[in-house]
Amino acid sequence: MKCIVVHRTLKETFISVVENDRLVEVFIEPVDNQSIVGNVYAGVVENVLPGMQAAFVDIGLEKNAYLYIEDIVSKAVLSEVREKDTKLNIQDYIKQGQPLMVQIKKAPVDKKGARVTLDITLPGRYLVVMPHNEYIGISKRITNPEERERLRRLAEEMLHDGRGIVIRTVAENIEEEKLRKDYDKLNDVWEEIQAGYQKNKGQKSLIRGDVDFATRVFRDVIKQDVDRITVMHKETFHVLKDYIERFIPEARGKIFYMEPGTFHEFDVLEMLRKALKRKAWLDNGGYLIIDKTEALTVIDVNTGKYTGKKDLEETAYNTNLLAAKEVARQIRLRNMGGIIVVDFIDMKKEEHRFNLVKLLEEETAKDSMKVQVMGITKLGLVELTRKKAKRSLSSLLEKTCPICQGKGKVLAEENILRLIAYRAIEVASTLASSTIYIRMSPSVYEYLMHHEPDYFDLLEKQYDKKIVIQKDKTLAYDEFYVDGEK
Fold first, then answer.
1. pLDDT tens profile 41-50
2. CA distance readout (Å), 402 to 292, 407, 412, 419
3. Distance, CA of 183 to CA of 438 (rounded, Å)
4. What global pTM score does this model have?
5. Is CATH 3.30.420.10 the right assignment for the domain spanning 40-208?
6. pLDDT tens by residue, 257-273
7. Thinking of the domain 2-34+225-270, which architecture would CATH place it in?
8. 146, burial (CB in 10 Å: exposed 0-12, middle 13-18, buried 19+)
9. Domain 412-483 has CATH 3.40.50.720
10. What span, in angstroms and rounded, lies between the C-alpha atoms of 383 and 372?
11. Residue 39 needs a FRET pair 20 to 30 A away by CA distance; which of 91, 109, 197, 401 works?
12. How many angstroms separate the CA atoms of 154 and 159, rounded?
């Protein structure tokens, strides 16, 4: 059974994907810091850097955006340049003071501005339209030759004016009418963008923002194989319900609104705590040890308490099969990116080694990000690569430990406050008491007082409860107490 849980707290929207009572994927976005990736802006070239083959573009944000040469020319031109082994000169394409329409490709990070592109892409439920790129692409996950040919013919019929199209995985076996409607809607969006740009040409301003976070996740990640969608925020519920009515009508009976305070129904918080631990247990008593370094992520497979019933080969094989499934889940859940090396338990039989790699490929195919399994070495090492598209779960929720000076990690104060808020909502929703008492460690208390003094104000207003916050020196750094009684 596959369930989606959408929860919005005082500070962020939190979307969890639960499969067979196991958390497999998490999406988090702060309410007051929504992603700008996908937004389209009118901008002006501030200066051109021939030595870097890049330019700075002022789009009205705090920092100028970066525009690289490969984000200016089309894929066809880039391909031709590579074939002829020639070089491009950015000064042949843009000049200082030139007005441009650009789209955010990568969000600003630290002191670096956003990365932008001239190759605008407009994602829909089933299709992605590229107004400036004459190209037809079909998701590699659609493997049926007849279906690929059907979709290609349809794309050729729909395209005009030098536009391109990418057909997404969820378009497989979808009727032509729905695909055409999606395409027509995206064309309408493009017309609106062009009109907006003409009005703002030469200025530095937002022309069109992407859809809200929850809708974006459903559009880009969630497929039709969902059994239940639970939303614990009324406004978000109505937005998603409207989206499902228009794009996934077969799922209209699967979305439900649930009052806040029942988040524990899926025990997602406990699953999230486990997802941040170094050790992940297997069902047979074996376990994984997961270590992240600057260069790669290493996962070590151990038999642990499992001793098997026959011989060492069977014990290793059975543990490795369980580990392959758990490795695929942990990669999605923790949002690992880049190079991943898994040290499976040594096996002698070639058949066992083949089956292990095949299972790992099948399990990682469920991932919305592209995962490539490189094969297994004689020592039982399997190398994988996974596309980096967003921050890892650890980087979102943890910080370097001030106690061990970076040798380990703990939850950041703001995320301990998040857990406290979840618990406070449960208490406020279920207890009749007019006062909620919260005790927390000195470190978290000092953080609250200095950085988030009004953190619980909205909760007080929403539930008409008085919240009393106390510093408790007896509590460990990440411990807290929330109840309707002292």
1. 999 999 999 9
2. 19, 10, 10, 20
3. 52
4. 0.71
5. no
6. 988 765 555 567 777 78
7. 2-Layer Sandwich (3.30)
8. exposed
9. no
10. 9
11. 91
12. 9
